[in-house]
Design goal:
mainly alpha, flat
Length: 124
């Protein structure tokens, strides 16, 4: 199986699409990191500890976080390529540049590529 490095424009398109989705009346793209640990109280996601973890670990894609999120995506993509081809290259610094137009729907299947590539790294 192959792995390839995506370009900065690809990351910009992903982040722009993620933020535009939120502005179209949907909830912002949100995730938890580190993940919420269900083992704190097995079977009870309403426990006080799980609720505290959810509040403390909630992350959101917005204009303030886009640069950091993009840098992480590029770093993980580079790590995947390095792992696949036994390389040790360092990614270039990333600065988010929002796309002026709505990302073309044709690129939507391509937005899954970095995630698929990152699954090749054992620690992902």
């Amino acid at each position: 199986m192959s792995a390839f490095e995506v370009g900065v424009n690809h990351i910009d398109a992903m982040l722009t699409a993620g933020m535009r989705f939120a502005y179209d009346g949907h909830s912002p793209l949100t995730w938890f990191w580190p993940e919420v640990d269900a083992a704190t109280n097995r079977g009870d996601w309403t426990s006080a500890e799980a609720g505290k973890q959810a509040r403390d670990r909630r992350r959101q894609l917005n204009p303030d976080t886009a640069g950091r999120v993009g840098a992480v995506l590029l770093a993980e993509n580079r790590r995947s390529v390095d792992h696949r081809y036994d390389e040790t290259e360092i990614e270039q610094p990333y600065n988010f540049t929002p796309l002026l137009d709505q990302p073309d729907p044709v690129c939507c299947p391509a937005l899954r590529m970095p995630m698929n590539a990152s699954l090749r790294v054992p620690t992902w």
